[in-house]
Amino acid sequence: MIIAGLSGSLRRGSFNTALLAAAAEQAPEGVTVRQLTIADIPVYDADLEAADFPAAVTALKDAIAEADALLLVSPEYNNSIPGAFKNAIDWASRPPADAARVFSGKPTGLIGASPGNFGTTLGQAAWLPVLRTLGCDFWTAGRLIVPQAGKAFDADGKLADEKVASRLQSYMQGFAAFVRARTSA
Q1: pTM of the model
Q2: Of 3.40.50.300, 3.30.70.1150, 3.30.565.10, 3.40.50.360, which CATH number belongs to 2-183?
Q3: Mind listing the pLDDT tens digit for each residue in 110-123?
Q4: Is the dihedral of CA 76, 1, 105, 52 positive or negative?
């Protein structure tokens, strides 16, 4: 099983990119998490879409479409979705005729880390209408929010909190089972 993992942060030392790396390490046997990036995705511009569709967007779309599932690892900015992350997903849904190939029925999970006390609760809630609109098969049985992420990761960006690591392992096992049930049906 291949899970396309996408961190919504551009920051070096990002807790969410570190959480994605930890999710890849915690993936059950037989599951590979391909860690993707949004770093090369330009700001959406319909003129650019019409004139010269960006190769980075095509590569992202293809990686998501070819994977068995999608794992979004999202920071929370101003109680919502980070603009750069939303922009990348907006690009991946273009042109509209191709959005179904990328997202429709795609088993999708959502996790996130934040230095704040509430984790990414509101940011994850903000993703729900987007995932619904794209037709993703969103896994609702599991939830992983990492508050006070500065305490959960060490100076090298490795997940150091054993409770969070255990919750992440459980999340990845549950998500993989969800994906297996969806893709074998």
Answers
A1: 0.97
A2: 3.40.50.360
A3: 999 999 998 899 99
A4: positive
